[in-house]
Amino acid sequence: MSSAPAVPMIQLAGVSKQFGNGQAVLNPLDLEIEKGEFVTLLGPSGCGKSTLLKLIAGLTSPSSGTIRVDGLTPKNAREELSFIFQDPTLLPWRNVLQNVCLGLELEDVARDRRLKKAGELLELVRLEHVSTAYPRELSGGMKMRVSIARALATNPRLLLMDEPFAALDEMSRDRFNEEILRLREEQKWTAVFVTHSVAEAVFLSTRIVVLAPNPGRIHAIFPVELPSLRAATLRTTPEFDQMAAKVSRSLRGAIAG
Amino acid sequence: MKRWMLHVANATAVFVALLALWQAIIWVFHVAPYMLPPPLAVAKALGLRLPLLLNAFAITAQEAGGGLIASILAGIAIALIFAQSRWLRRMLFPYTLLLQTVPIIAISPLILMWVGAGMPAVTLIAFIISLAPIIANVTQGLISVDENLVHLFLMHNASPAQLLFKLRLPHAVPSLFVGIRIASGLAVIGAITGELYAGSSRVGEGGLGYSILYASTQLQTDYLFALVATATVLGFGFVFLVMLFEWYFLHRWHESAREFEVD
Question: What's the average model confidence in pLDDT over B21-50?
């Protein structure tokens, strides 16, 4: 991430979204995300943050404007991106290893290569000891790790995460936040992360986009000037608290309108 | 003592008690044997007519089994069509309900007229009666896939075939078995009922339903009881086989299959 990349990872220009009945979900907005950034979309429900993520993933089309992912249309860029959902969304009839293999299998990667890759990823998320277990035998946290391993197995350059840790308790959520940063350190993907937790946003991001609701629009953007190598102890520093306070104020403003 | 032995002992005790009650009723109320034969007479009929009973059992089992397998295959095929569009389901689904509600007794004479008496007619009746639950359950299983899972597949540029074989069909397997469990009972009932109408192309030779009709007209009540017992075994056998398959396919990953595991 040293030289300035020519093409931004994500370019949104005048992108808006309306439901079929004409109700506006997102007002036209512009946003650029450079390669290597970790951008969090923060906002109350109804601010269109999940819709924005789906637009970038090409799972829904914008009502106006253009979206480019690494210079391509979202649908053509699919091989470069992975999605992590709020639920682990594992296939219950497949064991852990087979679940991690899914993306590679759908992209027709040869069997021995995908098994090798899935094995590596399971090691990375520290689940190699349960590779033959079925999802029903795993705890919520373990399922989430499988889901993360599956998303990373296809070597994404862009990782989209839709409140992936919202269903976990606070302690597991903190651990997962540290884990996500560790994985990013190793794999260097760009991330767009959706949450409504200010602490999570500040801990993870290089930039925070605060969205206002009804209809969704950008309220404020904060660069997070904290060390790029972050440890759990960051959460108890005054810099972290100041940043969190600033973002919280902005979020309250966004909700008040 | 093992737990399952206790279960068996309990079930046997209930069975013996019922037999005793049955015998007691005959003694106390002086019931004529052609109205209610004593347990021992039924046991004797079971023994003496074993070849006949086995023959009838085999015929009905083939009819019910053939009808069931046909309804599983046709049901899955129809469900695959129904799963394609909501519009198609709205248009055609009421007719599957019709399939379920039309009294099979009422259309049996028609089938007899069209197909002629014998095994094909009875198999057709078993097929018709067991088709609706397969269609309904498999369709439900195919369309109730979590939207995020569909998104996940689309994100990896999954083809329609991959979506079907790696997502929708495996997801529908538990529902398929719910359907088969209902259908297996119906297929046996359908075959026996069908035989009452379209039982045999030759006099004196037919499945359980045909033989039940024959025994009742001859007032061979002990034979009739033996036939009813055999029909019960057949119905139970079907349900047991289906549960065995269900356990085999689902026990590793699906909750429903765990109920069968002995506590």
Answer: 93
CB-nearest partner of A89 from B148, B156, B162: B148
Cβ separation B157–A89 shorter than 8 A: no
A188: phi > 0 → left, psi -120 to 50 → alpha, else beta; which? left
CB contact under 8 A, B151 and A83: yes
Q: In this structure, are residues B242 and B181 in contact, taking their beta carbons and an 8 Å threshold?
A: yes
What is the tens place of the pLDDT at every residue in A50-67?
A: 899 999 999 999 999 999
> For residue B191, what is the enclosing H or E element?
helix B169-198
pLDDT digits (tens, 9 = 90+) for B33-46: 889 999 999 999 99
Question: ipTM for the complex?
Answer: 0.88
| Interface check A78 vs B, CB under 8 A | yes
pTM exceeding 0.90: no
What pLDDT, on the 0 to 100 scale, is given for residue A6? 73
Interface size between A and B, measured as CB pairs under 8 A: 57
pLDDT for residue A207 is more than 90: yes
* Residue indicated by tokens 């309804």: B71
Subunit contact A106:B148, Cβ cutoff 8 A: no
List Cβ neighbours of A176 (8 Å cut-off, separation of 6 or more): A141, A144, A164, A165, A168
| pLDDT tens per residue, range B194-204 | 888 876 656 55
What are the tokens at B202?
């030759």
CB contact under 8 A, A59 and B154: yes
Mark yes or no for CB contact B151/A81 under 8 Å. Answer: no
Other beta carbons within 10 angstroms of residue B122's beta carbon come to 36
Phi and psi at residue A82, to the nearest 5°: -130, 160
A64-69 and A190-195 strand pairing: unpaired
Between A118-122, B70-74, B253-257, the lowest mean confidence (pLDDT) is in B253-257
Residue A129 sits at φ, ψ, to 5 deg, of -75, -10
Asked whether the predicted pLDDT for residue B246 surpasses 80, the reply is yes
Range with the poorest average pLDDT among A40-49, A184-193, A229-238: A229-238
- With a CB cutoff of 8 Å and minimum separation 6, the contacts of A126 are A145
Strands (DSSP E) found in A94-168: 158-162
Using beta carbons and an 8 Å cutoff, which residues of B are at the interface with A?
146, 148-149, 151-158, 162, 166-167, 170-171, 173, 252-255
Contact A158, A7 (CB under 8 A): no
- Quote the pLDDT of residue B262: 45
Beta bridge partners of A220: A210
Taking CA atoms, what residue in B is nearest to A81?
B155
Q: Which residue of B has its CA nearest to A147?
A: B152
Beta bridge partner(s), residue A217: A212
Contact A91 B149 (CB under 8 A): yes
pLDDT of B257? 59
Tell me how far apart the alpha carbons of residues B194 and A190 are, in angstroms, rounded to a whole number: 67
> How far off is chain B from A165, nearest CA to CA, in Å?
16
